């Protein structure tokens, strides 16, 4: 797996609403070397999700640039950007978005490039590493919210993502299950970069670096 530094240089994200322009982010610059667990924090509306969307190529900045190694993410044509996202990034969102008619194992395998025996084996290993070995054959409706979210983490990991992005992955969970999901995400730093957005500072005590946003700009950085 290639492991490159993800960086952004003076990125901005402006939303036009008729005459009005709202800046979700303005002039944010960051350099995120690989293999670390980064936490993006800040109050509601501070631009956390916007920053995650820009860093992961889900949105394009209205100013500045996002770069992965020497690849200018924000300048790639749509198809190339989509391919890069699919092959090098993994995503976990607030809701797990599992297919209700597939088992936990099948929900993971469908995200693999080829749904073959090797992918099934890997999906089973991921479930085991996340404490869900016995849940492989269960449907999402038979799992708890925390278990469903850990299945979503396993699905995000099936392609060995160089960067794992998570947007408020614990917002729908209680503290105990939230911490288990964060532990599962954080463990990936031994292989790739982990970037987690949350408004819950208690979830980021194990982060290597905290990125604090306020009103669309960086407020502190350690
Ligand atoms: N589609 C949109 N159109 C207009 N303004 C938007 C849009 N999406 C976000 N914004 C604004 O951009 C700012 C940053 O939003 P963002 O979702 O990035 O913040 P956040 O820190 O993730 O908030 P939360 O914790 O509430 O999810 C907010 O003022 C928000 O109202």
TrEMBL record:
Keywords: ATP-binding, Nucleotide-binding. GO terms for molecular function: ATP binding; ATP hydrolysis activity; transmembrane transporter activity. It comes from the Bacteria. InterPro entries: AAA+_ATPase, ABC_transporter-like_ATP-bd, ABC_transporter-like_CS, ABC_transpr_LolD-like, P-loop_NTPase. SMART domains: AAA. Transmembrane segments: none annotated. This is Putative ABC transport system ATP-binding protein. The keyword Zinc does not apply. GO terms for cellular component: plasma membrane. Residues 6-222 form the ABC transporter domain. It comes from Armatimonas rosea.
